[in-house]
Design goal:
205 residues; alpha/beta; Helicase, Ruva Protein, domain 3; Dna Topoisomerase Vi A Subunit, Chain: A, domain 2; 2 domains; two-stranded antiparallel sheet; 8 helices; 7 strands; 13% strand; elongated
Amino acid sequence: MNGQYPSTLLEKAVGEFAKLPGVGRKTAMRLVLHLLRQETAAVEAFGRAIVTLKHEVKYCKVCHNISDTETCRICASPQRDASVVCVVENIRDVMAVEATQQYRGLYHVLGGVISPMDGIGPGDLQIESLVQRVEAGGIEEVILALSSTMEGDTTNFYIYRKLEKYPVKLSVIARGISVGDELEYADEVTLGRSIVNRTPFTGSV
């Protein structure tokens, strides 16, 4: 046992929390000690929520957003404009765009962006399923709403090359989002304006 820990159980719990992104060992220790101070029922409910999430969460068969059902509530809603699809990197970006209340179309979650440095290629992302959605018809516009990073721009260009032969309008969100910014960290007003003021994608990176 590490000498700084009075309990191997405590050390193990801290080690698990420290595996979370952005959580160092000091923060992990605070979280574990906080849980120890809670009622047993509250801690058990916390644990059950995490285990249930892992076992029972689904991914929408249409857009790949997290869902409680086979088709997410956005894709299933008759109030949404099914002719417009907004392509985003991850589920957090769906939440960010939804928070603007400026967009009423559907989504397509890629699950990342092309990043050779990280070993992520087009085949690791949900790009082919996007092509299949466009090929099936009914989609008039695809909005590329990826982060304005080199990886985001590379992914935009790859998608453009895959979709350019189809009769679909390709747009990119306006650069109210600064170059290098992650979409999820943009404020709602700026992101909302960027969606509304989107421009045609010309195929340039």
